[in-house]
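User: Design a sequence. Structure:
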Protein backbone atom coordinates (compact mmCIF):
# COMPACT_ATOMS: atom_id res chain seq x y z
CA UNK A 1 0.00 0.00 0.00
CA UNK A 2 1.14 3.53 -0.61
CA UNK A 3 2.03 5.83 2.28
CA UNK A 4 0.27 9.18 2.46
CA UNK A 5 3.24 11.48 2.98
CA UNK A 6 1.60 14.89 3.30
CA UNK A 7 -0.06 15.28 6.70
CA UNK A 8 -2.85 17.45 5.33
CA UNK A 9 -3.62 14.80 2.69
CA UNK A 10 -3.55 12.14 5.42
CA UNK A 11 -6.18 14.05 7.41
CA UNK A 12 -8.36 14.41 4.31
CA UNK A 13 -8.01 10.71 3.51
CA UNK A 14 -8.91 9.86 7.11
CA UNK A 15 -12.16 11.86 6.88
CA UNK A 16 -13.04 10.15 3.60
CA UNK A 17 -12.30 6.73 5.13
CA UNK A 18 -14.48 7.48 8.17
CA UNK A 19 -17.49 8.51 6.10
CA UNK A 20 -16.96 5.46 3.86
CA UNK A 21 -16.95 3.32 7.04
CA UNK A 22 -20.36 4.65 8.07
CA UNK A 23 -19.83 7.95 9.87
CA UNK A 24 -22.43 10.60 9.15
CA UNK A 25 -19.76 13.26 9.80
CA UNK A 26 -16.05 13.18 10.58
CA UNK A 27 -13.10 15.43 11.24
CA UNK A 28 -9.40 14.72 11.44
CA UNK A 29 -6.22 16.41 12.56
CA UNK A 30 -2.67 15.50 11.84
CA UNK A 31 0.62 16.24 13.53
CA UNK A 32 4.27 15.81 12.87
CA UNK A 33 7.18 16.43 15.21
CA UNK A 34 10.93 16.08 15.20
CA UNK A 35 13.40 16.60 18.03
CA UNK A 36 17.15 16.53 18.35
CA UNK A 37 19.25 16.33 21.47
CA UNK A 38 22.99 16.94 21.62
CA UNK A 39 24.88 16.25 24.85
CA UNK A 40 28.22 17.96 25.18
CA UNK A 41 30.76 17.41 27.95
CA UNK A 42 34.08 19.27 28.16
CA UNK A 43 33.61 20.61 24.65
CA UNK A 44 33.10 17.13 23.13
CA UNK A 45 29.85 15.67 21.82
CA UNK A 46 28.84 12.77 24.08
CA UNK A 47 25.66 11.81 22.29
CA UNK A 48 23.38 12.88 19.51
CA UNK A 49 19.80 11.63 19.24
CA UNK A 50 16.99 12.43 16.85
CA UNK A 51 13.35 11.36 17.08
CA UNK A 52 10.34 12.05 14.91
CA UNK A 53 6.71 11.10 14.88
CA UNK A 54 3.62 11.58 12.74
CA UNK A 55 0.02 10.71 13.36
CA UNK A 56 -3.65 11.36 12.63
CA UNK A 57 -6.62 11.63 14.97
CA UNK A 58 -10.19 11.03 13.71
CA UNK A 59 -13.42 12.05 15.39
CA UNK A 60 -16.45 10.35 13.84
CA UNK A 61 -20.15 10.94 14.43
CA UNK A 62 -23.07 8.66 13.83
CA UNK A 63 -26.01 10.89 14.65
CA UNK A 64 -25.34 12.04 18.20
CA UNK A 65 -22.85 9.27 18.99
CA UNK A 66 -19.15 10.15 18.82
CA UNK A 67 -16.04 8.00 18.51
CA UNK A 68 -12.36 8.88 18.40
CA UNK A 69 -9.18 7.09 17.34
CA UNK A 70 -5.53 8.09 16.87
CA UNK A 71 -2.83 6.26 14.97
CA UNK A 72 0.55 6.58 13.34
CA UNK A 73 0.18 4.25 10.36
CA UNK A 74 -0.43 6.72 7.52
CA UNK A 75 -0.75 4.12 4.78
CA UNK A 76 -4.13 3.83 3.05
CA UNK A 77 -4.76 0.59 4.93
CA UNK A 78 -3.69 2.16 8.23
CA UNK A 79 -6.01 5.13 7.78
CA UNK A 80 -8.89 2.82 6.82
CA UNK A 81 -8.29 0.75 9.97
CA UNK A 82 -8.12 3.91 12.06
CA UNK A 83 -11.38 5.17 10.55
CA UNK A 84 -13.04 1.82 11.32
CA UNK A 85 -11.88 2.15 14.93
CA UNK A 86 -13.34 5.66 15.27
CA UNK A 87 -16.63 4.63 13.65
CA UNK A 88 -16.74 1.47 15.79
CA UNK A 89 -16.32 3.58 18.92
CA UNK A 90 -19.16 5.83 17.76
CA UNK A 91 -21.43 2.82 17.20
CA UNK A 92 -21.11 1.74 20.84
CA UNK A 93 -21.10 5.23 22.39
CA UNK A 94 -24.10 6.52 24.29
CA UNK A 95 -26.37 8.99 22.56
CA UNK A 96 -25.54 12.57 23.53
CA UNK A 97 -27.76 15.36 22.21
CA UNK A 98 -24.88 17.81 22.68
CA UNK A 99 -22.44 15.71 20.67
CA UNK A 100 -22.93 16.83 17.10
CA UNK A 101 -20.49 17.71 14.38
CA UNK A 102 -19.86 21.43 13.98
CA UNK A 103 -21.46 23.12 11.00
CA UNK A 104 -19.00 23.76 8.17
CA UNK A 105 -18.15 27.44 7.86
CA UNK A 106 -16.59 27.35 4.41
CA UNK A 107 -13.41 25.89 3.01
CA UNK A 108 -11.17 23.87 5.33
CA UNK A 109 -8.61 26.13 6.93
CA UNK A 110 -5.68 23.76 6.45
CA UNK A 111 -2.74 24.11 8.75
CA UNK A 112 -3.65 25.92 11.95
CA UNK A 113 -0.19 26.32 13.37
CA UNK A 114 3.34 25.48 12.56
CA UNK A 115 6.23 26.28 14.86
CA UNK A 116 9.80 25.38 15.36
CA UNK A 117 11.86 25.48 18.53
CA UNK A 118 15.55 25.77 17.97
CA UNK A 119 17.96 26.06 20.85
CA UNK A 120 21.51 27.30 20.27
CA UNK A 121 24.44 25.18 21.38
CA UNK A 122 26.55 26.76 24.13
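Assistant: Done.
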Amino acid sequence: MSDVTDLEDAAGSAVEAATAAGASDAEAWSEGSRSREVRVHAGEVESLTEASGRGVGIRAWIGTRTGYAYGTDLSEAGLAELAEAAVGAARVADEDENSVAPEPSGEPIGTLASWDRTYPLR
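Residues 112-122 have pLDDT under 50 and may be disordered. The first helix runs from residue 7 to 20.
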